[in-house]
Amino acid sequence: MKNKILLIIFLVSLISSIIILSTNHGNSNFCGIDEKGGCNAVQNSKYASFFGINNSIYGIFIFAMLSILTFSQMQKPIKNKQLLIDSAVILGFIIALYFIFLQIFILKTFCKYCLIIDGLMILAFLLVILGEIKKNKK
Predict the structure, then answer these.
(1) Which residues contact 81 (CB under 8 A, 6 or more apart)?
(2) Hey, which of 56, 119, 121, 123 would disulfide with 20, CB 3.0 to 4.6 Å?
(3) What's 102's domain CATH number?
(4) Considering its fold, how many domains does the chain have in total?
(5) Among 58, 61, 62, which residue's Cα sits nearest to residue 48?
């Protein structure tokens, strides 16, 4: 059940990353045509890329890989695959907290699609932690 929910989280995050990337190419309809803050402000900030690559491109790649990996784990469970998925979720949780911090305290504006991804990564983290607690009780 955990991996089914994680797969949904990764797919929604993948779609959100694609939407964010589309807003970077002049298509701001998703964020509001005249929006001066929010998505546009976040996506045009110096925090919108890492090593010269837009964060949404990383998101597309990572969430696509995690979706494939999670689907594969659902079909043929292997302990190391689950460990990789869980580790990626923990790292994603830390990154999500960082991006939320940036939006609240540094940029002082919010990108709704970024927040969807960040919120879903927090939810995924809680699923992983609760799964570990449940597993350790057995």
Answers:
(1) 69, 72, 73
(2) 56
(3) 1.20.1440.130
(4) 1
(5) 58
